[in-house]
Every structure is written in structure tokens, then in C-alpha cells.
């Protein structure tokens, strides 16, 4: 867990005024605390911030890049003066600067409260650290900070241009984000869809998905009798289309139990109410095609999910994937991964053959053009 406790309130808990002090966070709180330190005789003060747009000096105080802390300033006392203290604590840990940090909070005119934050290995935040000290796709070391998207810090790989978040949702946050009919309405509204049962609202949606398959040379007539799995199917309308129009044997998987149950009753298709990352329900060599539309960017470990897909595909079977293009949606709070064409290709080539990727733009109900990467790959026959 990540613990936070007050260990000092009032003045300054440090007596050595020659001590090098780095304030991580150069916004209003950081500047107020820097002025407070200067008033009290501290002179060896630096700012550090994740905002690449800041100047090299603020109020005559040098602004450092986070990456320089471990190399040139590991003798400094680092104080977190950012409201994103959880993310910054993780970032400092990732830079090898320890597990215990001090977060400063303003408590009135020239009054500050000091919190000790301590990271422990069982903390869910730390489950991301080992993953993101290297790129989760190409395994290159030294991912660079890209931005803070209002929810979490994002880091980018120089090797494959993959971008990923520094930490994941808690179990409670995960449940809140993906459960209920509210999620269905939010997810489908931009496509002009508001009903699970109304076939007319889904016609264009299903035809677009079918054209996506056709773009990879998958002939609709060849799908008759095929076993098709869609992971992250939500209401399962495309599976219903494949079953009723093309005669496919279909199975869906989704974490949203309320929507899945409603769809099972309304559409008569089978949906496993499971999380692909934790489920062991899929049998080996069971499916001819596995579909995953706008799901891979939501999972903690894309490569582990792809391993499960590879196992459940028959030899010669295909996986078809669609994800948002790269960093085009960095402010989406429930996305952990932002794939480049290169990083998506590398992900698939680890296990699959005949990898094909193309960019697919589409216009939503509001007329906004959205960009995505569409990919297919095959499980090589033994």
C-alpha cells in the first residue's frame, strides 16, 4: 500500500540551510514554498517539474528535468510540492531515489504541513513500476516522461514510440469505471447508439466492423460455421450480427456484468462475465477468429493478453485488433497504453505471423474524425 502520514506541521523540519533542496512541482504550491524557504535563509533551492513547457528558471530558481535527479542531484532533499504526489512518488521510486518521500501541503499563510509518503511492494501502484522501468513492449530501458493527462503520468519509449501510464486503477476504481448501463451509454453515444435492442441503430456499426475484417482479406462467406470470440464485446451486437447473418458460433467476454446480462436476455448470445487478464475460462485451440476492438489499450499487460489469445486460437486462426492511434487520445483516463504502429506490430510479432496493420479513420455521430490502428495476425500452423 501507499501510506501517507503527517510527520511535521508548522515551520521547517530541516535545520541545515546549506542543504540542497529540490521542490518537485513548480506550480503555485511549489513557488509559495520556495519563497518560504528563501525567507528562512535557504539558498540552494531547485525546482523540478514534468511540464516540458516551463522555462529553465522560475523566480531565479533553476528548473531541473526529472531524469537529472538520479544522475546529478541524488544528494538533494527532495520535497514534493505537487498535488499529484502519488504519481510523483512513483516516478521518484522509478528513478531509484528510494521509497520514502515528503509531500508538502499548504495550510494557511506561511504554514505548511509535511506528509511522509512510503511505498510498499504490495501496493497496487507499485505493480506498474517493474513493468514500466522498461518499455512493456520492446523492453528498452529508460522510458521518458511524456505528460500528465490529468489522471496519471504517461511515459514514452524512444525505441518503439509506445506510450503508457505509470500506474493502474485500484479494484474499486476499475469496478466504477466499467460497470453498469451508464458505461454502455457513454461508450456508444458518440456513435449515435442508445439502445441494445434496436437493430436499426446498429446496422452501420456492424457493417463497419465487417469491412474491417474484409480489409484483412477475411471473406464474410468463409466465416459460416466459424468459432468466433470477441473480448471486450460489451453488449455483443457484432457477435449477434455474425451469428444471425453469417451463421457463426459466437462467444463474448466482458467485465460489465449488467450490460452482459441484459444482452444475454435481449440478444440470446453467450457472454462470459470475466476479465481476460485474470480469467482461465478459455480453452486451448478453440477459436477460428478472436476479435478485440478498443480493448488492448485498457489492459495492464497487453503481451499477457496476447499470449492468452494465442493459446485459445486454433492453428491457422486469426486475431483482429483495433486500438486508438498512438497518442491521439492521451486524456482518456481509463487508457493505460497508447500504441504506435511500431509498438502494435512488435507486440503481435512476438507470437503471431503474417502481421498486417493499417490506419483506419472513421467519423462518429458528431462528425468528429477519429483515428485508429487496425491489425490482424495469424497463429502459425504447427
Describe the structure.
This protein is of the alpha/beta class and 382 residues long. It folds into two domains: 2-119, NAD(P)-binding Rossmann-like Domain (Rossmann fold), CATH 3.40.50.720; 171-378, Rossmann fold, CATH 3.40.50.150. The protein has eleven helices and 19 strands. The strands form three sheets. The protein has an eight-stranded mixed beta sheet with strand order 1-8-7-6-2-3-5-4, sandwiched between helices. A seven-stranded mixed beta sheet has the order 14-13-12-15-16-19-18, with helices on both faces. A hairpin with a 4-residue loop joins strand 9 and strand 10. The radius of gyration is 25 Å and the shape is elongated. It starts with a strand and ends with a strand.
Give a topology summary:
Layout: E1 2-10, E2 21-24, H1 28-39, E3 45-48, E4 57-58, E5 61-64, H2 68-72, E6 77-80, H3 85-94, E7 100-106, E8 112-119, H4 129-132, E9 144-148, E10 153-156, E11 163-165, H5 171-178, H6 181-189, H7 199-214, E12 227-231, H8 237-246, E13 249-253, H9 257-267, E14 271-272, E15 287-293, H10 302-312, E16 313-324, E17 337-338, H11 341-349, E18 353-363, E19 369-378
Parallel strand pairs: 2-3, 2-6, 3-5, 6-7, 12-13, 12-15, 13-14, 15-16
Antiparallel strand pairs: 1-8, 4-5, 7-8, 9-10, 10-11, 11-17, 16-19, 18-19
Give the tags.
alpha/beta; 8-stranded mixed β-sheet; Rossmann fold; 382 residues; single chain
- Number of structurally distinct domains: 2
Shape: elongated
The CATH H-level homologous superfamily of the largest domain: Vaccinia Virus protein VP39
Which sequence of SSEs, written as H and E, runs from N to C?
EEHEEEHEHEEHEEEHHHEHEHEEHEEHEE
End-to-end separation? 45 Å
Beta-strand portion reads 25-35%
Amino acid at each position: 500500500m501507499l501510506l501517507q502520514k503527517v510527520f511535521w506541521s508548522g515551520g521547517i523540519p530541516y535545520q541545515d540551510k546549506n542543504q540542497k533542496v529540490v521542490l518537485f512541482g513548480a506550480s503555485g504550491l511549489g513557488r509559495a514554498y520556495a519563497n518560504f524557504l528563501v525567507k528562512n535563509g535557504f539558498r540552494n533551492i531547485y525546482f523540478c517539474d514534468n511540464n516540458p513547457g516551463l522555462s529553465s528558471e522560475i523566480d531565479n530558481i533553476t528548473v531541473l528535468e526529472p531524469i537529472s535527479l538520479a544522475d546529478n542531484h541524488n544528494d538533494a532533499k527532495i520535497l514534493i510540492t505537487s498535488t499529484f504526489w502519488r504519481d510523483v512518488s512513483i516516478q521518484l521510486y522509478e528513478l531509484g531515489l528510494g521509497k520514502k518521500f515528503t509531500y508538502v501541503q499548504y495550510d494557511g499563510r506561511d504554514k505548511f504541513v509535511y506528509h511522509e509518503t512510503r511505498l510498499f511492494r504490495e501496493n497496487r501502484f507499485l505493480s506498474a513500476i517493474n513493468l514500466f522501468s522498461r518499455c512493456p513492449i520492446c523492453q528498452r530501458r529508460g522510458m521518458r516522461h511524456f505528460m500528465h493527462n490529468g489522471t496519471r503520468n504517461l511515459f514514452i519509449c524512444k525505441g518503439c514510440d509506445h506510450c503508457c501510464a505509470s500506474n493502474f486503477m485500484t479494484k474499486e476504481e476499475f469496478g466504477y469505471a466499467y460497470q453498469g448501463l451508464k458505461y454502455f451509454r457513454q461508450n456508444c453515444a458518440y456513435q449515435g447508439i442508445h439502445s441494445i435492442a434496436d437493430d436499426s441503430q446498429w446496422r452501420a456499426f456492424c457493417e463497419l466492423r465487417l469491412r474491417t475484417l474484409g480489409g484483412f482479406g477475411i471473406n464474410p462467406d468463409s466465416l459460416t460455421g466459424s468459432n468466433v470470440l470477441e473480448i471486450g464485446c460489451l453488449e455483443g451486437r457484432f457477435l449477434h450480427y455474425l451469428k444471425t447473418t453469417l451463421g457463426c458460433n459466437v462467444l463474448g467476454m466482458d467485465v460489465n456484468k449488467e450490460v452482459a446480462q441484459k444482452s444475454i436476455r435481449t440478444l440470446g448470445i453467450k457472454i462470459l462475465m470475466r476479465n481476460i487478464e485474470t480469467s482461465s475460462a478459455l480453452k486451448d485451440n478453440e477459436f477460428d477468429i478472436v476479435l478485440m476492438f478498443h480493448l488492448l489499450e485498457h489492459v495492464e499487460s497487453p503481451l499477457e493478453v496476447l499470449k492468452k489469445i494465442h493459446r485459445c486460437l486454433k492453428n491457422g486462426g486469426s486475431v483482429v485488433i483495433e486500438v486508438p492511434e498512438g497518442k491521439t487520445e492521451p486524456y482518456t483516463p481509463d487508457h493505460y497504453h497508447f500504441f504506435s504502429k511500431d509498438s502494435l506490430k512488435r507486440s503481435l510479432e512476438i507470437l503471431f505471423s503474417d502481421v498486417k496493420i493499417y490506419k483506419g479513420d472513421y467519423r462518429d455521430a458528431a462528425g468528429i474524425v477519429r483515428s485508429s490502428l487496425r491489425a490482424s495476425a495469424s497463429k502459425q500452423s504447427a
